[in-house]
Design goal:
The complex is a heterodimer of chains A (about 170) and B (about 200). Chain A has helices at about 40, 55-60, 80-85, 125-140, 155-170, and strands at about 1-5, 20-25, 65-75, 75, 90-100, 100-105, 115-120, 145-150. Chain A has about 170 residues and is α/β, with parallel strands linked by helices. In chain A, the strands form 2 sheets. In chain A, strands 1, 2, 3, 4, 7 and 8 form a 6-stranded mixed sheet that branches. In chain A, a hairpin with a 2-residue loop joins strand 3 (about 65-75) and strand 4. A 6-stranded parallel sheet of chain B has the order 2-1-3-4-5-6, sandwiched between helices. Chain B has about 200 residues and is of the alpha/beta class. Chain B has 7 helices and 6 strands; from the N terminus they run E-H-E-H-E-H-E-H-E-H-E-H-H. The chains are: A alpha/beta (about 170), B alpha/beta (about 200).
Chain lengths: ~170, ~200
């Protein structure tokens, strides 16, 4: 499965192939994670907040290719994408394992994935560098086998996404 | 004489470990501290109030390798509503993993915020094994580091510290997994149930 998560609407509906899912997070109702650990200790694998995030994190887990489109803020994901990524912790267990010589949470049934992140709104190279380091850390916790980060100006987001989807279609 | 504003950026601030860390900081701090939870509705009030302080200490947990989104939103409000007098910014961040270095990117994000908005960066404490450390015999490691942080901020001898449980990775996994099994038991959930591989299933 291929998954596209974006923090702004994209003009891509005609390009979506079979077994693809696209979510415009900006149009969805997704509350902040409240840090209750319910998805680990009360209802394992299920978030206790029953909003639109519960449709999305199973897709994140199932996908072998993900494309995340997000504005960058202070070198990290801005609010819309970050809110969703925090709500995706039901895909992990509370339990800790050693992974790549560091301690990390055990994953549930999460498919290893190739990730492409289209990052827009970065102000300078320093911010891009911090974001690169963040995605490198995410790779350990979000089961990225490989990843590409593409920094663009906001006006180029649609064009860039279309090119990536073309590549996906041909591969 | 300075005065320190402590802001808790944990999503579960009133019952958070960050609150306990803030309390330890206040206990060891030689100068006055004022504590607030960051909530969805008090951003403007906190930004305006910041002017009266020589220092601010942000206390928060690592969420998805970076800043919790509620705290990120607070920083965005602060950027748009800067206090007249900008305090020096210090950070106490904790993660549930053994390695305090896993907090580093989040600290770099705060440093970037400070540079962009002309705040002086003060001290940093990165805590590992933060979820459970205060309930273990290794509490001393966290308390000692927080005391060092408090002294450094009060004396304006800003510095960077880190602390974690003095355990091997293997032993830490074992200890953490016992902690989580007992946590689940409180809610009637067995270890096997917590280990389900199913998601929304």
């Amino acid at each position: 499965m291929k998954l596209i998560l974006s923090d702004k609407p994209l003009e891509i509906s005609t390009q979506l192939g079979e077994r693809s899912a696209y979510f415009d997070l900006s149009s969805m109702k997704i509350s902040n994670c409240v840090g209750c650990f319910g998805c680990w200790v009360k209802t394992p694998g299920r978030c206790v907040i029953r909003d639109d995030a519960t449709m999305i994190y199973p897709c994140i887990a199932e996908s072998d290719s993900v494309l995340y489109v997000s504005r960058i803020r202070y070198g990290g994901y801005d609010t819309v994408m970050k809110t969703m990524l925090e709500r995706a912790i039901p895909v992990q267990q509370a339990f800790i394992r050693i992974h790549c010589n560091e301690t990390h949470h055990v994953q549930r049934d999460v498919v290893p994935k190739r990730a492409v992140i289209v990052a827009y709104g970065a102000v300078d190279e320093e911010e891009c560098d911090i974001f690169r380091r963040l995605v490198a850390r995410n790779a350990y916790n979000m089961c990225f086998e490989s990843y590409d980060i593409i920094f663009v100006v906001e006006s180029m987001v649609n064009e860039t996404v279309k090119q990536i989807l073309d590549k996906w279609e041909k591969s | 004489m300075g005065k320190i504003m402590i802001l808790n950026g944990s999503p579960r601030a009133p019952i958070s470990n960050s609150k306990q860390y803030a309390e330890i900081f206040a206990r060891f701090c030689k100068i006055e501290t004022v504590y607030h939870n960051i909530t969805k509705t008090n951003h403007n009030e906190l930004c305006a109030g910041m002017s009266g302080f020589s220092d601010v200490l942000f206390v928060f947990p690592l969420y998805a390798d970076s800043l919790p989104v509620g705290f990120l939103d607070f920083l965005k409000t602060l950027e748009n509503n800067p206090p007249v007098n900008k305090p020096t910014v210090s950070v106490l961040i904790n993660c549930g993993f053994l390695e305090p270095e896993q907090n580093k990117v989040a600290v770099q994000m705060i440093e970037l915020f400070c540079r962009r908005n002309s705040y002086v960066m003060g001290s940093v404490l990165m805590l590992g094994s933060g979820e459970a450390i205060l309930k273990t015999p290794f509490k001393y490691a966290a308390v000692r580091a927080i005391r060092n942080l408090a002294v450094s901020v009060a004396d304006k001898h800003y510095n960077t510290f880190n602390a974690t449980m003095p355990l091997s990775k293997k032993m830490f996994c074992l200890a953490a997994n016992i902690h989580w099994s007992l946590y689940g038991k409180k809610f009637g959930t067995t270890k096997k149930q917590m280990q389900t591989m199913r998601i929304e299933g």
